[in-house]
Structures are given as structure tokens and as C-alpha cells.
Amino acid sequence: MFKMQRELSFVLFSITVVHAVLSGLYVDNGVDQTIIQRTLSTKEKQDVSHDLLNLLGLPLRPKHLFSNATSIEGSVPKFLMDIYRSLDNPRRTTRSEFNLGGKDLQSIDESDMIMGFSSRNHHVSNVRHEHGKRIWFDVSEVPPGETIVNSELRIYQMINTTADPWLQFTVSIYQVLVDGELEYVDSVNTTAGSEGWMLFNVTGPLVSWVAIPHSNKGLYLSVQPREKPIHEIRTEDIGIVASKVMHLEEKQPFMVAFFKSAHGGITVRPRSRRIRETTKSRKRKSMTETSNYRNPYTGFSDSMKEAAYNSHSCSIQTLYVNFRDLEWQDWIIAPDGYGAFYCSGKCSFPLNAHMNATNHAIVQTLVHLMDPQNVPSACCAPTKLSPISVLYYVDESNVILKKYKNMVVKSCGCH
Fold first, then answer.
1. SS3 state at 26
2. Fold of 112-261
3. Which parts of the sequence belong to the TGF-beta family profile domain (predicted)?
4. How far apart are CA 378 and CA 293, in angstroms?
5. H/E element holding 147?
6. Closest by Cα among 174, 88, 60 to 127
7. Among the four residues 25, 140, 192, 277, which has the most C-beta atoms within 10 Å?
8. How far apart are CA 5 and CA 180, in angstroms?
9. What is the maximum span of the chain, computed from C-alpha positions, in angstroms?
10. Nearest 10 degrees: CA dihedral of 43, 48, 50, 55?
11. Each residue of 277-335: pLDDT tens digit?
12. Per-domain residue ranges for the chain?
């Protein structure tokens, strides 16, 4: 784990070192100001974008979807934005227009990735019932190797002012099989006077569609009066929004799936030769600079100790990645960027308490001063990291909310 933490922080730091200070990457200028020093060439911006996409586990940049900024008018991005905001809220509650319950919050906590699917117009094999609605979702973008924790279908019901509000109905979901037959999945009870999102568990159908893609013939939505269960009525008769309606984008039916990733939501790519060479250069420079310090056994004045604790000692530094500067605002919904931060500075004798030095680092520092050619100095590295969440479009109808572990440096120390 510690090796991965250092690897992640080093990738971001190395990009900064190799390209000086880059467009889209903001750092400290040494006088408590965060600045950007120069503009990237087209080639440089492509290189940085490629490196960051690899870090985020994306093989390619999603296709250009919107002219200026991402749209959040549909039900899917709005739902996932609701979850995104809840992740940043320390006082999480179940209060939401989407009726997020305890099970939803549990699925959110257990998952590394949440994927939303908008309903699509798609021809499926005929079924014998005609009063209900057929709903289809494109699940081809589900990454391989992800474990499905849970999957839900959400259908919106509007109040039907022309019907008796106390009339009771059963809304059922069926999976359309390859031969056109229907297999029961889940159902909820409602009344004509109800309004809000209805929730159905569709984990089973999603598992089968991902495992056998050609079996995806969609779902069938059926509404039956409680007093006449063999009689099927039209979904519109009780105000169900079961298909795309231009002025009701926020009420469009959608499916959401919660995934657990085997690699914790992030893939670390092998470091390039360019970065490895930078590492060697930094190590040589660090050894040269540190070896110039006086040996503690020959005496250390108070002024020397004070100098060792100045701004050049190991500490956290600003590194902000701006997604808009990288021209990613057409597919990333949130955030606009993120504060990655990084660790920089010397781990020089004497190691003060604010350096969060390990006992081993203290011993290594002492031995380094006695034999700097053979024993390197302790390194300034993250001691605590926190995750970030990124909400982005995969295509024009599917949206992903992905958690990335160990992406933000919270504290630094000598190791």
C-alpha cells in the first residue's frame, strides 16, 4: 500500500518536474502563491492528458459530447451528482428527491464505481403483452472484471389528476428473454395519487447481460390494478414516465449499477523511461545537497538547527490539476479539478517533530551523515492520502461516478 501511495504521488510530481510548470497544473511559487508559469504546446498538453487518463484508468478520452460544458439535465447525471455531493458531506442523510435509503447508502459505501444508464430506443423481440412498456439499456461499456454489488431500476410516477387517487396498482418488472418470453424480476405497489421514484432491484438481469451480451433484450414494465390482477393497463394511465419525453428529461427512466473493483478503482501504469531518469537525477541532487550538511557529532549550533527547519524541510506543497485547462469540461461533470498536493523538501538532521519522521528515518539520516556515499538520505513522502470521486460521461447516455483511492496528499513525513 505504501509503495502504491508513493507511486501515485510521484507520477503527478514527475509530470510537473519534466514539463516545468504545466498548463492545467498549478503549484506554489515559493511565496505562498499558487500560479501557473507557462502555456503548454499542443503536443505537451496531449502528453499530460495521456498520462492523467492512464492514471484514472481510462484507455482513451471519452468522445466529445457537448460544445462547452457537460449537461446535467437528464435523470442519470442528476442522480449521480446527488450521490457525488453526498460523498463530500460528512453529515450524510437519506434525504433526497431520489429517495436514497439505507441500502442505497450501503451500496455507495461498498462500491468503487457507480454507473448510470439512460434508457435507449432499441428494437427487441416481440412479447405477447402490449399495454406495458419495453425498456432497454446499453451495458456494453461496463468494464470487464468488475463485481456487481447491486443494480437498481428507477421509474418516475406523476400524479394522475383524472383518476381516483386511492386506486391501487402493482407495477412489475420482467426481463425479456431471448425467445421473447418474460421472466419476473421485481414489483412495487402504488396508488394513482402517488408521485415520485419507484425502485426495482434488477441485479439479476444486469449480471446476465454483462456475462452474455446478446441476451440483453431489455425489460418489460407492466401495470395491473390490485383488484383485477389479470388485467393490464397502460403505464400512462397512472402517470408513469416510461419513455423519453423532451420536457421531462429529469424524470426519464434509468438504471444504476454499483461495482466493486478488484484493484480499488485505480490502475498504476509502469513508469516511463523519462520519469525513471528524472528519479535518478533527483536522487543524485538530493545526495549532493544533503552531504554538505555538518555532521551532528562535530557540533550543531542553534542557528544551524533553525536553518534546518526552514521552508526547505519536508512539507506538503500545492499541486492543483485543472480539468478545464485540459479541455475536459465536455465530458467531466464534476469536479472542475482537484487538489492533488505533493511532498517536497529535505529530510535533514535534526528531524523535527513536524516532519513526521519514522524511527527508521531518524536512524537512516544519522547513518547518511556519516556515510553519504553509500547510504541515501531519508525521503519526503506522503504519510496520509485521501480519495477523490470523479463524475463523467462515458457516452451520450451513460455516466460513471468513480472513486479513486490515495489521490490527495493530506500529510507528509520522512521515511
1. strand
2. Jelly Rolls (2.60.120)
3. 282-415
4. 14
5. strand 147-157
6. 174
7. 25
8. 51
9. 96
10. 170
11. 444 444 444 333 333 333 333 344 444 344 334 457 888 888 888 888 888 888 889 89
12. 27-53, 60-100+310-414, 112-261
pLDDT in tens, 211-238: 999 999 999 999 999 887 678 888 888 8
Is domain 60-100+310-414 given the CATH code 2.40.50.140 in the classification?
no
For residue 126, give the C-alpha cell: 416481440
Q: Which residue has the cell 456487481?
A: 148
User: What distance in Å separates the CA atoms of residue 400 and residue 113, rounded to the nearest whole number?
Assistant: 7
- DSSP letter for each residue of 212-272: SGGG---EEEEEEESS-TT--B-GGGGTEE-S--GGGGGG--EEEEEEE-TTTT--PPPPP
Decide if 240 contacts 137 (C-beta within 8 A): no
Q: Model-level pTM? A: 0.76
Return the closest-CA partner of residue 14 out of 340, 386, 314, 326: 340
Give me the amino acid identity at 381. A
Query: In angstroms, rounded to a whole number, what is the distance separating the alpha carbons of residues 298 and 291?
Result: 14
User: At residue 2, what is the residue type?
Assistant: F
Output the nine-digit C-alpha cell for 8.
501515485
Cell 518536474, residue located: 17
